[in-house]
From TrEMBL, chain A:
One of its GO terms (biological process) is transmembrane transport. PROSITE patterns: ABC_TM1. SUPFAM superfamilies: MetI-like. Gene3D superfamilies: MetI-like. It is found in: Cell membrane. This is Thiamine/thiamine pyrophosphate ABC transporter permease ThiP. Residues 42-241, 303-490 form the ABC transmembrane type-1 domain. Its main location: membrane. Keywords: Cell membrane, Membrane, Transmembrane, Transmembrane helix, Transport.
UniProtKB/TrEMBL annotation, chain B:
This is Thiamine ABC transporter substrate binding subunit. Transmembrane segments: none annotated. The keyword Glycosyltransferase does not apply. Residues 1-18 form the signal peptide. It comes from the Bacteria. It is found in: Periplasm. CDD domains: PBP2_TbpA. Keywords: Periplasm, Signal, Transport. Gene3D superfamilies: Periplasmic binding protein-like II. Belongs to the bacterial solute-binding protein 1 family. GO terms for molecular function: thiamine binding; thiamine pyrophosphate binding. Pfam families: SBP_bac_11 (PF13531).
């Protein structure tokens, strides 16, 4: 695929961010200064994102290693389930966490039963707990891909020579993979809003995102909102620049794609690590489903229609996202990939407001609610897709690029023969993630939708606002099932016959 | 050719006529859902107006105003329904609203003189807890107790802002001290009403900031009398929800007709059991059974829109400083 297509895709992404933000600044007549409260929000945002990302990655390493080197029945299902928290709508996940770690949750009930003092989820620790809950699965999945990218032949050589696998094979792989995973999760956590607010326990846990929400919704201070949005983008660019400096190239070379049989490590310890991670991630999910099942029959018909719309939007958004991502990663240079990371740090509220300003003079915003939502969801999933695909594509090029050059493979043929078969696994994962993220999105749609265009998360939220808590819990079960369903479908598709 | 032209002209004329008979009302989301007053109101108004009433849901009250400001005079909205008195000063300043020109008899605990906005319902903020549990008798009593509550953030939620005004109106210069004493009672602060109410129902707190009318929902819709609102000695701050006519409307007569209709029984009788608030004009048949069980605050607290707007920033800073400690 030509470099030109990658450039066009990257410029498209850039304009999808720059035009709306520009429209907000233009409407506001300029940007505004920052208050002391904004700076406090900035410090808290960065601090909690660093801690959350650090913990997520640290905890993910043993889990990913255990998953990568053990084979057991149900492993594939476990990997899919572990991906669930990341694709859940925030409010659903928070309610799940609260039913386990809350004041009257499972953990405190057990603690009280054995005479121990209660723990509280509300406070900075709650924010970090929730962020780890959301992002640990993402970190695990990205790291498992790292492990699977180490050629099985290297392990054989190490085994024959009695050399330590950890230092020779795993450490270089981690050195190459971890910085990227850390930065992605750090950036995800810098735009956290509802988690920080619900579990943060009060204004101490104010994030930049809340300051933006306040500026747009309550004060109509678009200049202030634009300034904060630019700060978020600045953080993203700096983090990506640091990543490019830190990231190491691949030194392990190519293999014959055999599944590795591991002999090292303690199976018992790996089992324990996986069991703990599964408990942590699956218990809140189980709580959501258990508490929602009775409400399922109260879910009104209109919610099923909303679910149908959500599925269509998710499929459109996934297709768009994957096309953009593949085009961008095959460009081969860094700048389009940095551009593709920017959506991580743009808030849906500012972007949506900007798009509204752009669209309004020409069209009724509500008449384009669903296409705009699909486009924006594709944009917001793009950073993950690009991150996931770029390593795989670069490996394929590094290992077989010269061979392909020698065979004069270029354009679509090179894509079909070389790249696609070698990135199939990450491609399925990225597609599943993009579709599921779109299913759970409750961002831009809230600004554009009126009557008949509700998506499932919006319908669920409106049920809650109408005292229909049980029906909302039922809708949450539907949402979890559909999100996991689309995720599993694509993710599984990418792993057919891959033995992993 | 002539026929084609006249057909096109005819089509244009009908579509223009159809356009003239559409009344677009921007309101908050929960108003238009199948549990809200929207469907009943739409049916009743369309029976008499010979028009098409279209509701457009746009988030909550605050989102409604920022939506209108984004659209400016080119907005499709003819009526905006669902602002409250914390927002009306800012709304009036935009110059996007016209005077309503009506002087109706209202059943509000306070006098109503606003020239631009007419109330359609109102309620008292209150903490809602479980029947039979310890119930404080004042904000001060609550602050001195160990009772755990969930509140909403005044920076993102209208009830949250209501509590801020409640404390400020009742305590004035002592508000900051009260917030400091309340800090250890607050389990957490949520972005909106739904999350807070959900946490309360999950058993995460002893009480939640809501309305005196919330127990009526549980009583009437769920036949559950286990929820009660606490009556506080300082009085209760009110939320008055209003509608206004957009100055740039292309159907001013229809908009006027709607505002007048809004205060008749057909609209008002839908309010108590769909919006779970008090109607601005009590319908002839009175309030539904169950409403008589609700607490009746002795003192109604409410700042004028101008006072509310002037007080907000300082009160917000006090709140932030007291709770950030």
């Amino acid at each position: 695929m030509a470099r030109g297509a990658g450039t066009i895709a990257a410029l498209l992404v850039l304009s999808l961010i720059a035009v709306p933000i520009g429209a907000v600044i233009w409407t506001a007549g300029g940007i505004a200064g920052l208050s002391a409260a904004d700076w406090a929000a900035f410090r808290f945002t960065i601090w909690q994102a660093l801690v959350s990302a650090g913990l997520s990655v640290l905890l993910a390493i043993p889990v990913a290693r255990a998953l990568a080197r053990r084979r057991f029945r149900g492993r594939a299902a476990l990997i899919t389930l572990l991906g669930a928290p990341f694709v859940l709508p925030v409010i659903v996940a928070v309610m799940g966490l609260v039913s386990i770690f809350g004041r009257s949750g499972l953990v405190n009930t057990v603690l009280a039963g054995i005479g121990l003092p209660p723990v509280t989820i509300y406070g900075p620790q709650g924010v970090i707990l929730a962020h780890v809950f959301f992002n640990l699965p993402l970190a695990v999945r990205m790291l498992v891909h790292g492990w699977l990218s180490i050629p099985a032949e290297r392990f054989r050589v190490a085994a024959q020579l009695g050399q330590p696998v950890g230092r020779l094979l795993e450490w270089p792989m981690l050195r190459r993979t971890v910085p990227g995973v850390f930065v992605v999760i750090f950036l995800v956590c810098t735009t956290s809003f509802a988690v920080a607010l619900i579990l943060g326990g009060g204004p101490r846990a104010t994030t930049l995102e809340l300051a933006i929400y306040q500026a747009v919704r309550f004060e109509f201070d678009l200049g202030g909102a634009a300034t904060l949005a630019l700060i978020q983008l600045g953080v993203c660019v700096l983090a990506m620049a640091a990543l490019i400096v830190v990231e190491a190239p691949d030194a392990l070379g190519a293999g014959l794609d055999r599944t590795v049989e591991r002999w090292d490590g303690s199976p018992r310890l790996d089992g324990l690590v996986m069991a703990l991670a599964a408990l942590f991630l699956i218990l809140p999910l189980a709580a959501i489903i258990l508490s929602g099942l009775p409400g399922l029959q109260q879910v009104p018909v209109s919610v099923y229609a909303a679910a149908g719309r959500s599925v269509i939007v998710a499929l459109a958004s996934m297709t768009l996202c994957i096309l953009l991502a593949i085009t961008i990663v095959t460009h081969g240079q860094n700048w389009p990939r940095v551009v593709a990371t920017l959506p991580l740090s743009v808030t849906a509220l500012v972007l949506g407001t900007g798009l509204f300003i752009v669209v309004f003079p020409f069209l009724r915003p509500s008449s384009v609610a669903l296409p705009v939502t699909a486009l924006m969801n594709a944009l917001f999933a793009l950073p993950f897709a690009v991150r996931i695909l770029s390593t795989a594509r670069d490996d394929a090029e590094a290992q077989f690029g010269r061979l392909a050059d020698g065979l004069a493979l270029s354009g679509w043929a090179r894509m079909r023969v070389l790249i696609l078969p070698r990135i199939r696994r990450p491609l399925g994962f990225a597609a599943g993630l993009a579709a599921a993220l779109s299913m759970g999105d409750l961002g831009v749609i809230t600004l554009f939708a009126s009557g008949g265009q509700e998506t499932l998360p919006l319908a669920m939220f409106r049920l809650m606002a109408a005292y229909q808590m049980e029906a909302a819990a039922g809708a949450a079960v539907l949402l979890v099932a559909l999100s996991l369903g689309v995720f599993w479908l694509f993710d599984r598709g990418g792993r057919v016959g891959a033995g992993a | 050719m002539k026929t084609t032209l006249s057909v096109i002209a005819g089509l244009l004329a009908t579509s223009a006529m159809a356009q003239e008979n559409v009344l677009t009302v921007y309101t908050y989301d929960s108003f238009v859902t199948e549990w809200g007053p929207g469907p009943a109101v739409e049916a009743a108004f369309e029976e008499t107006c010979g028009c098409d009433l279209q509701f457009e849901g746009a988030g909550d009250g605050a989102a409604l105003l920022s939506r209108l400001q984004l659209e400016g005079p080119r907005t499709d909205a003819d009526i905006v329904l669902g602002l409250d008195t914390n927002l009306t000063a800012a709304a009036r300043e935009t110059g996007l609203f016209a005077e309503h020109g009506l002087s109706p008899d209202l059943d509000l605990p306070v006098e109503w003189t606003d020239s631009h906005f007419l109330p359609f319902d109102w309620g008292y903020f209150a903490f809602v807890g479980n029947a039979g549990a310890e119930a404080p008798t004042s904000l001060r009593d609550l602050a001195d107790s160990d009772i755990q509550i969930v509140i909403q953030d005044p920076r993102s939620s209208t009830p949250g802002l209501g509590l801020l005004m409640w404390v400020k109106t009742a305590y004035g210069d002592e508000a900051s001290a009260l917030w400091e004493d309340l800090a250890d009672n607050i389990v957490t602060v949520t972005p909106g009403w739904s999350e807070a109410y959900g946490l309360f129902l999950e058993g995460e707190a002893d009480a939640v900031l809501s309305y005196t009318t919330s127990p009526a929902y549980h009583l009437i819709a769920e036949e559950d009398d286990s929820k009660v609102a606490w009556a506080f000695e300082e009085g209760h701050y009110m939320q008055v929800e209003v509608a206004g006519k957009v100055a740039s409307t292309d159907v001013p007569d229809l908009a006027d007709q709607f505002l007048a209709f809004m205060l008749t029984d057909a609209f008002q009788s839908a309010i108590p059991t769909t919006n779970w608030m008090y109607p601005a004009v009590v319908p002839e048949d009175g309030l539904p059974d169950g409403f008589e069980t609700l607490i009746q605050p002795e003192t109604a607290l409410l700042l004028s829109p101008e006072e509310a707007s002037a007080t907000r920033d300082a009160a917000l800073e006090e709140w932030r400083a007291a709770l950030a400690r």
